[in-house]
Design brief:
single chain, alpha/beta, 6-stranded mixed β-sheet, 4-stranded antiparallel β-sheet, 11 helices, 14 strands, 37% helix, binds adenosine-5'-triphosphate
């Protein structure tokens, strides 16, 4: 059985105007999980719950097989975390920053830090304020990796980077999971990055997990179906999200194509419908469409 490096079960966190609602997900050892959702969907809030930066209201957390409401201190050694907006002392140099951060970790390896800087082409002598956004991201990654974490949690590591640097980073992600048997959990708006590199995906929408699991299985189950308007009725609509109705036909997204097929065969054994693949981008757009439709109908 696969070893789970981190588990969240029914984790809830309430803010005045937002609820992270019973979030459950499991990160297996040795894989990359991509975490995708629109702005404000709850990605950073989920990550802050995972890393024990904010207190959850309810639900269960398990880090490296150990359950608890607070992450034990020694677990922090086993995690590398890069926040959405890493904070540095701008006047200090890269090597000073490495010394400073390294002081917090028993397993910090200076030689590995130097090696990563070289690989990422970040000059150790430069001051933080002299680094570009891409260089700062690379520095954050080197700082998060130099203590040999078993789990890297990265909040939007590729946003704002050019395609060449993004592609380089994705290569580094692959190397990390191969060499270290570590896991990576990274959030991103750039769904193509997730589709390219992730083994598992978790989709969050309005504070709730819409899908979480093996990437190929999720993308295999979520499909776009199209058919003639005369077949549309409550039984089918129940299985479809993000509906679009045209003059003749409709299209909608199903989260389980097998269930849709069974329902269709029962209702219209002689009729045809079309099935199309969905990209992660299209899934998000359809989910957003569903929300707008709901608002139009319910005010
Ligand atoms: N400390 C806080 N107090 C109150 N509301 C908060 C707090 N932190 C986040 N929120 C709200 O929670 C919601 C989710 O925010 P979160 O940062 O988790 O989204 P996200 O998916 O990471 O978005 P983005 O992609 O824009 O970074 C937002 O509506 C935000 O305003």
């Amino acid at each position: 059985m696969e070893e789970m490096i981190l588990r969240m079960k029914d984790v809830t966190k309430q803010y005045p105007a937002f609820t992270l609602d019973r979030v459950s997900l499991d990160i297996p050892r040795g894989y990359i999980m991509g975490f995708v959702g629109r702005n404000g969907a709850g990605k950073s809030t989920t990550i802050k719950c995972m890393t024990d930066i904010i207190r959850t209201d309810s639900g269960e957390m398990e880090w490296f097989g150990q359950a608890g409401s607070k992450m034990p201190l020694e677990m922090k050694e086993r995690i590398g975390y890069v926040s959405e907006e890493p904070a540095f002392y701008e006047e200090m140099t890269v090597e000073w920053t490495g010394n400073f951060v390294g002081g917090f970790y028993r397993k910090w390896e200076e030689a590995l830090f130097r090696k990563l800087l070289k690989r990422f082409q970040v000059d150790p002598k430069k001051k933080i304020k002299e680094l570009s956004r891409g260089m700062k991201v690379k520095l954050s990654l080197a700082l998060a990796m130099a203590h040999h974490p078993e789990l890297l949690i990265l909040d939007e590591p590729t946003s704002g980077l050019d395609p060449v640097i993004r592609s380089e980073l994705l290569d580094v992600f692959r190397e990390i999971i191969q060499d270290e048997r570590a896991s990576i959990f990274f959030s991103s708006h750039i769904t193509s990055d997730i589709e390219k590199v992730a083994d598992y995906i978790t989709v969050i929408h309005n504070g709730r997990i819409a899908a979480s699991g093996d990437k190929l299985t999720v993308l295999d189950q979520w499909k776009l179906v199209k058919a003639d308007n005369r077949y549309l009725g409550p039984r089918l609509e129940r299985l479809l999200a993000g509906m679009k109705r045209g003059e003749f036909g409709f299209s909608g997204m199903t989260r389980d194509i097998r269930e849709f097929e069974r329902e269709w065969k029962r209702s219209f054994p002689a009729a045809d419908y079309k099935v199309e693949k969905l990209t992660l981008d299209e899934m998000l757009v359809r989910m957003a469409g569903e929300e707008e439709e709901f608002m139009e109908q319910h005010g």
